[in-house]
Amino acid sequence: MRAGRGRPLRAADMKKDVRILLVGEPRVGKTSLIMSLVSEEFPEEVPPRAEEITIPADVTPERVPTHIVDYSEAEQSDEQLHQEISQANVICIVYAVNNKHSIDKVTSRWIPLINERTDKDSRLPLILVGNKSDLVEYSSMETILPIMNQYTEIETCVECSAKNLKNISELFYYAQKAVLHPTGPLYCPEEKEMKPACIKALTRIFKISDQDNDGTLNDAELNFFQRICFNTPLAPQALEDVKNVVRKHISDGVADSGLTLKGFLFLHTLFIQRGRHETTWTVLRRFGYDDDLDLTPEYLFPLLKIPPDCTTELNHHAYLFLQSTFDKHDLDRDCALSPDELKDLFKVFPYIPWGPDVNNTVCTNERGWITYQGFLSQWTLTTYLDVQRCLEYLGYLGYSILTEQESQASAITVTRDKKIDLQKKQTQRNVFRCNVIGMKSCGKSGVLQALLGRNLMRQKKIRDDHKSYYAINTVYVYGQEKYLLLHDISESEFLTEAEIICDVVCLVYDVSNPKSFEYCARIFKQHFMDSRIPCLIVAAKSDLHEVKQEYSISPTDFCRKHKMPPPQAFTCNTADAPSKDIFVKLTTMAMYPEDHYRDRLSRDMGNTDRIENLRKIWVFLKTAFHARLRCMCTCNRCTFCICQNFLNSDLLQSVKNKIFTAVLNRLRARVAEWGAMLLADDEGSITHQVHAVRSVEDSIFMESSHGPLFLEARHVTQADLKSSTFWLRASFGATVFAVLGFAMYKALLKQR
Predict the structure, then answer these.
(1) pTM metric for this prediction
(2) What is the pLDDT of residues 380-392, one digit of tens each?
(3) Cα 327 → chain centroid
(4) Where are the beta strands (DSSP E) in 263-361?
(5) In whole angstroms, what is the distance from residue 282 CA to residue 273 CA?
(6) Which of 125, 395, 561, 580 gives 20 to 30 Å between its CA and that of 254?
């Protein structure tokens, strides 16, 4: 809504342009006023009606384009007059100060005619213009003042002269000002006090500016208020002068060297009464108000683009602001907001945004008051589920003003697409949604309340009309603080698309109900068996006697069959707070989705599935590289055929035999040396060595060529050394070529 950070909101930000209509009796000088303004001299020849004049924005004081429209009774019909009245933003009723008949027509004709064409609740502002003041030596104000008191829509009266150019510019400035800074919404002339809507808006502004919540604006707060509204601070002496003016008129306007709410309202009343209501309007518009003293949609709902598969979270600056807001209203410093403290916080809202269910959505203390952690959690929940409502709430608190940001949108972080998280096997998110699914009365509510640290005894005290379908709290995973959001999904035959979208699923069944697990299994097969959303099955009410589930296989076998973690036993029937192990597991699954996490979970839970999978992969690779592969075609042109022909070629067989011969000769030489050295040993030991050598010979082509056998190559003759080195390099190159060829073949086969 504001054009720049820290810049006061101008009236130009609210109005696109101003349209001024001049009406009055014939020959009172309407056209002469317009011509004198444009040419800055009195015209010798005056046309019957002036053409519409547009004054550019850079010429006007308020930087708003201004259109000036003339009316001629001789050239225009009544229908055209009515149309011009409906299009005008302000109307100047011109009379001649030397013509009493034209003055009488102001009340007998023009004001009733204008009011008939406008709504009663949105009357157009009127300016009375007394022209030809150069022809008389007296003022018409004594005659005009009763008219002004009778009609509240009259903003002011200006006496001018088109011939002498007296007050011409002032006339159109007041007309423009009547549109951009109207008095009507702010002040009631009959009662000589501000209107209730204006008092309400200024009271909200005072409470936002009172950053320490002590009921007064101290010098630092007044200076901050002055700077954000008018972009200039007040000198210490100027601050003292303002306080002295307030002290002079009301006794309780200043307290403890600070300006009270009464003093703040008095100052604005004084501004309006002295014709400086643009000062009050500058303040109101800086805090987001429009001409009707309502907060504008542009202020409450700034533009925020959220791509698909992305979520919204509060950033670090937003949490700091909320922390200061909590501290501001936690007057007793008990790290919890009592009902009175919470009510005081919401005084800047037009309504109470939180219902009684919030106390069962976030953490509270023993007295049921929302704690600091619960306060932040509720804001986190609102941001995740309804970011537009969060922007609205932050607007009521004055986030963009107090933090001097462009809008509340600067408090929101839009996470990256979840598909990217799945590809990278990691996430940058801090809030994870878990849908809790199960039959009615299976223990889902107990799981939600257990996240908040409440056992069964505390849960029984919750009223049915205060129950919540959400619960949110922080969970620590590998030392990182994350928010886990649980959503209780009502039992139904089929889940909607919105009920499926989440980061992790918690399927809950009652161990004491034989029909409970069947629902979990059915929902899993319908919606999650082929999805990429990790699932965890929770065996709730584990403190009760477990019965056999009426399903084809047991929950444990079901989990093993679908490569899921085993069912997690859970109960909230504990003396202290229930265990949070399952919440850590759920959050971990959400942080490390798909197979990457499942491997982690298998290790953490002692599951041997991961080891078995690795063993199967190893067996497959050994088989693929050592078995004789048969070509599925006889083209002799494809990659597989070329590789197969190469492996069966005489060259490769010759390389193989050469290496085998060289190594075997060296082994036999070494055996002879060992025999000489061990001649003194017993015969059994020598036999053992010979058997060891034969074993090595049998397995030479199953071992790595980097083993200790080749470390003895320096003992071979020079000729053998050169020959072995050459054939070793050739063999290694051929092997690499074969492996790459096999990989290319697999890729081509997959494309087919």
Answers:
(1) 0.73
(2) 999 999 999 999 9
(3) 23
(4) 312-314, 336-337
(5) 16
(6) 395
